[in-house]
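Progress against Task 2.4 (sequence-to-structure conversion) is shown through the following example record, which the project officer requested during the mid-term review.
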Amino acid sequence: MTDFAADAPFGRVSDKLQEHYGITAPTSSARLVTLEHANSLTEKETLPAKPDKVVHLQLISEVDGSMIPIVSRVAANEVPPLNDAGEPQKRRRQWMEARLTTAQAFGVSEPLFGVTTGTVQEAGAMMGAVAHAVGITGATKVHGVADGATWIKTRFDEQFGSSSTFVLDLYHVSEYLAEAAKVCAPDAPRAWVLQQMDRLREGKAALVTGELNMKANHGPREVPDPVFDCLRYLLNRPGQLDYPRAIAAGLPTGSGEIESANKQIVQARLKVAGAWWDLSNATSVLKLRCLRANRQWNRYGENEAKAA
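Structure tokens generated for the chain above:
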């Protein structure tokens, strides 16, 4: 039952139990049983034990956030939100960020995952915990790649220090360049973007920022300037454009893996149409899904059986 509910809305679990096992169970049971397991699951249990006598000289760490729908009860001293009819509501709906992190040894195809709906400090601690589970040592160098969220680089540096390397996700850079190209090269925007991307891969970031600087509107403006925005995006992230070193070492320059994982682990279950989650339950179900992604489901089941 918990296995099915980790993947599908509670309302569909009864149908799956009937289809696969001929068992009839109400939706309320599926919800209660699943949340009982999920809420008792600790973050440590979602990760395997650190491998003994394994030394990885290179790890890859990626982090990405995804907004999830959260509903909470309005406190007695709070001003309640109003519905479309102007009537006060007892519940407040908002979007909160779930932060998924992954780490894997260089050359290993299967990463490990950790997730938190807590603070950026907790997300940073999760980066370290997942790297620890993979097998980080004092001799390990960590390579990070992520979008431009400043908290990611800050927490990455806190966890992995001066031995680490970090690059800005090239796909996000290309999006900024694509907008700037509408101003810089309106007749041939694609060719211009490709030229800038080649420059970045060749370590010629100064040529890119120099051209953007000449064409950006540095003064007051009534509408946003995509050229200035792109320039600021790159200049505000010094040290994160060393793509030649990453490419030479065979390390990733894009964060597509963590973004894909976010869709599969977080969004596929928590962003089902019409679903709103209690924060505690959302956090617990995400841990359940990380347990599965980390191939720890059987170990958890064995521990539960021993406890019983």
